Amino acid sequence: MRYALLYWDFVKIQFRVAQEYRAAFLARSFAKAVANGASVCITYLTIYSFGHVLSWSAFEVMLLFSMNTIAYALAGFFMFHPFTKLQQRVNDGTFDEMLTKPLNPFFYLCSRDFSTGYFANLAVGIAALVVSFIQLDIKLSALKILWLVVVLIGTGMIHSGFFMLTNIPTFWLIKIDAIGRLRSTFESFIRYPISIYDTWIAVMLTYIFPFAFVNFFPAQYFLQKSDFMIFPPMLTFMTPVVGVVLMLMGYALFQLGIRNYKSSGS
Amino acid sequence: MPIIEAKNLCKDFQVHVRTRGMLNSIKAIFHREYTIKHAVEDVSFSIEAGELVGYVGPNGAGKSTTIKMLSGILYPSSGEVLVRGIVPQEKRRENAMHIGVVFGQRSQLYWDLPLSEALYLYRKMYRVEPGRFADNVRRFVELLDMQEFIDRPIRQLSLGQKMRAELVVALLHDPVILYLDEPTIGLDIVAKQRIRSFIKEINAERKTTVVLTTHDMDDIEQVCTRLILINHGKLLYDGSLPLFHERFAGDAVINLTFNGEWRGFELQGVTDIKQTGYGKTSIHFDKKNILAADIMRVVMQTHNITDFQVNEPGLEDILSNIYQGKTIK
Predict the structure, then answer these.
(1) Is B275 exposed, middle or buried (0-12, 13-18, 19+ CB in 10 A)?
(2) Are B12 and B77 in contact (CB under 8 A)?
(3) What pTM did the predictor assign?
């Protein structure tokens, strides 16, 4: 409870800062909205002009896209800055501060760097999601809506987990940009249903870099599809579990990283 | 019981061996050679509550590394730290409630907030009672003369103002220990003095234990009662300031100006006599063996002295000799 209140205080600060730099905030939001909106359109148009990809119609692919956009935005609010800025904090020694406060260092790191920069992503994602559901004429019961919320939180956790796991190695390595690029490469695979790829790629996206749980598997429950390739159909329900596991792994790695933190001479 | 105890503290860092030449660089990608750098080597000391300790040494001596082990940021490679009887790395949160840290080269202020607002955040973070909070803020603001800039965003403050803000943040929760790593770096004389007298005031008022690293020997002389000296990671001296002077101070010097010829003289305890110019001589002597007054009495019998000064080596001179490896006995 104390942590929740403190977190909220830090969030309020970030909003105040956004207010102070209003022009920058608006320009960035606008740019992101345009970029994300364009991606949605391109994805939609590509599929539309082909009619469909395998058994996936254009709006079904748009649903996949929207789920990933929302997931990325959720992770972006809470986890993007804490972990993308970690490399710099560790290299210049400002990470010291995280270790001298009467708070869990992980919590303090996350609360200091809440980002206000993902409203545009979230808005585009939700709009695309709603449009897809309407166009596909999918009726959602209250229970299904609740499950959708749980799934979306889970997808946010998956992206969060990846932000963590790809950035925490900075405690051991000085430069980690390549690992981050690896992450975004794998992420770009899930713009389309993974059944279009070779089986080994699908296996990798399921069991090694489980991005398939961000949209491909959970979406099939709502779309009532069964395009599960060689995988067990119950994976459609596993998104929250995968999210929690990835974040726990990230947290464990973070704890190890602290032990290896070298600070910097002054 | 001592409030801070360091026992055989060591910290090693792995350093890559850099190689020259294309072939060696390629080799290094697959197989790297390391050497171990001993940043801190077998350092032991214990500090009692309320002490004002100056922790000095040249750049790279291991000062910051030690402070970071004491404050729980770095894990020692071997040896042990106990602060208030607990291991700071293991009970980080409990430890943090009782220490305040200021790292002069590294701000921990919230850049976009004015101090007045940041303090509320710190109040919650450290769970400081509202009454105590108000008292502390009032007292610190008065002592450090901060009224004028307390509502301005931190990023607009001068270096000296920022450092004062850092001190307030570090002391808000009444820590029993204050670690200051180069708190006066880059400040002007007035700002330095303000910070020195503030530290002394807080120590007198609240019995706060202070561990301070600095390169400014006036910080040490004006604030500290005890000196710990390290070089190359090893402890060279730990004790009071007067005792340090006594042990390490080299010769004192009398600079004379006189009319006429230099005739010379000999006395027990005079170690060197140098003609430094026409009508000018400097006499080096060991204070333990002879008084300046005795030398002057002898010299004035045979010379027509017009002016003289007695210079004693300051802390800075002594330390610079030690850093260069000159006078270690």
Answers:
(1) exposed
(2) yes
(3) 0.86
Question: Cβ separation of A265 and B124 shorter than 8 Å?
Answer: no
Mutate which: B125, B166, B169, B181, vs A, most A CBs within 10 A: B125
Q: What is the ipTM of this complex?
A: 0.82
**B126 contacts chain A (CB < 8 A):** yes
* Structure tokens that stand for A77 in this block: 């609010």
Q: What is the largest CA-CA distance in chain A?
A: 62
Q: Write the DSSP symbol of residue A264.
A: -
Cα B228 off chain centre by = 9
Express each pLDDT in A11-46 by its tens digit. 988 888 888 888 888 898 899 889 888 888 888 888
Q: Are A239 and A155 in contact (CB under 8 A)?
A: yes
Residue B272, CA distances (Å) to A11, B1, B43, B253, B267 in order: 70, 48, 37, 9, 10
Q: Report how far residue B75's alpha carbon sits from residue B64's, in angstroms, rounded to the nearest whole number.
A: 13
Q: Does A101 touch chain B (CB under 8 A)?
A: yes
Q: Are A170 and A90 in contact (CB under 8 A)?
A: yes
Using the Cα atoms of residue A91, residue A92, residue A94 and residue A96 in order, give the sign of their dihedral: positive
Q: Which of A250, A207, A211 is nearest to A106 (CA)?
A: A250
C-alpha closest to that of B63 among B54, B72, B50 = B54
Domain ranges in chain B?
Answer: 4-246, 251-312
Over the stretch A72-109, which tens digit does the pLDDT of each residue have? 999 999 999 999 999 999 988 889 999 999 999 999 99
Which helix (H) or strand (E) segment holds residue A9: the answer is helix A2-20
The phi and psi torsions of B96 (rounded to 5 degrees) equal -60, -30
Distance (Å, whole) CA B320 – CA B250: 12
**Burial zone of A251 (CB within 10 Å; 0-12 exposed, 13-18 middle, 19+ buried):** middle
A53, containing H or E segment: strand A52-53
Cβ contact, residue pair A5, B126, below 8 Å:
no
Cβ contact, residue pair A97, B108, below 8 Å: yes
Q: What are the structure tokens assigned to B207, written together?
A: 């019995």
CB-based contact (8 Å) between A102 and chain B? yes
Backbone angles phi and psi of B84, in degrees to 5: 55, 35
What contacts A32, CB < 8 A, 6 or more positions away?
A: A117, A118, A120, A121
Contact B60 A265 (CB under 8 A): yes
CATH topology of domain B4-246: Rossmann fold (3.40.50)
CB-based contact, A24 to chain B, within 8 Å: no
Segment B103-112 mean pLDDT: 82
Listing DSSP states for A87-150 in one string gives HHHHHHTGGGGGGSSSS-HHHHHHHHT---TTHHHHHHHHHHHHHHHHHTT----HHHHHHHHH
